[in-house]
Amino acid sequence: MDIKIYLLAIAVLLSFATISVEAQETDQRPPNIVFLFADDLGFGDLGCYGHPYARTPAIDQLAKEGTRFTQFYVTGVTCNPSRTGIMTGLFPARFPKYAADFGFGNRTTITELLKERGYRIGHFGKWHIGPDDSDGTYGIDEIKTIGKSRHKSAGRDDDLYSAAIDFIKDNRDGPFYVNVWGHATHFPVNTPAELADHFNDVTVDRNDFAPTMQHKFDECLKIGGDLDESMRQYLGDVYQIDLNVGRVLKLIDELGLRENTIVVFSSDHGPAPVALENKGAREFSNNMLGYAGEFRGGKHDQYEGGTRVPFIVRWPGQVKAGRVDSSNVCSFVDWLPTLCSIAGIEELPQQLDGENVSNIWLGSDRERTKPLFWKTSATGSTPAMRVGKWKLHLPRKQRGEPELYDLSLDPSESNNIAEDHPEVVDRLGKTLQAWIAELPANYEKTKKR
């Protein structure tokens, strides 16, 4: 054989072998994970979740390309407890020391597990998960705790999203995991005209909203707010979230990462109240018109409006596109075991309150195997739980009457049927009390709240 032909044949075979190895590595490589997390965004604050005026085209398109859940829950009704469940797979009431002040102690986090799996980990924006936000904490390679953006006209989350975009560019070869934890729509909502003016055509018709929203309109008016202007302010803040989500999605496509990247969008709990009971009305309180849809309550409440949040997941070829999952009950306490399953991590922490719901993400229907519990980190605070269709609230320090709701018939928790179903109250109550017995007798915090 001619030596030139021989060498050419060898070169061709080597090139095919290289392509084959690269393709195999791509098939075996776990997916990138991009976690876009809003702050105090209500269940009903997005167009795809039924807001009558919101303009969220990027997030709505994400929902069309993925699955949108309507029974997805957080683990706490304020900022740190919600994030504690995400990071550890444990209900936050299990921690005797408040994690915002002390961190997670010896508990293993999802970011540490993914780091061991070979992921590059980034975190940008709000922190609120311990006193140390230096690189390396919880296995996170790059941490930038970024507050409001320097250029106000672009919206308050613009800078932190820009930092996350840079991280994705730098780690495009993957796999990477990135927390993009924004500040909108946390108090105060003070939206620049450049964003709020997009909604100058909005005039509030109170009939466009559920009965559960009417008290917020009343409170806004009572403290001197203008419903139309306050609504435009709030919608502008939501709009800048959508603009930033659009930037990330565009980048993922430009880098050719869409097919092997899981994108999740959600919120840390329900919308903030117009005025806090212990602080009253403050400047910009009138703009806090977040919408929980038909659900009762919001931030600080363990009713559905505080615990149920929007949740959208896209993973092309894996998660069904255009699907609305209204039957499965999932929670952020499931985040750690679910991502570990997807990423091929087999050794998990011995104690987990969550369960692997990856099959639900991928389209299966099944009953969850573990109850959902809520309780603030205070001795004697009000506990609540959900099992199946039932939601039970026990009174604080056993003073008062229990509340039981059938969420399949009464998702707004407007009709307490505890007296009609004493056997359900007794059965669930025993389960809830058994869980409370596992919790710390006392809690420690370093800051007044």
Automatic annotation (TrEMBL):
Residues 31-345 form the Sulfatase N-terminal domain. InterPro entries: Alkaline_phosphatase_core_sf, Sulfatase, Sulfatase_N. It comes from the Bacteria. Its EC number is 3.1.6.1. The keyword Signal applies. Keywords: Hydrolase, Signal. One of its GO terms (molecular function) is arylsulfatase activity. Residues 1-23 form the signal peptide. Belongs to the sulfatase family. This is Arylsulfatase. Gene3D superfamilies: 3.30.1120.10, Alkaline Phosphatase, subunit A (3.40.720.10).
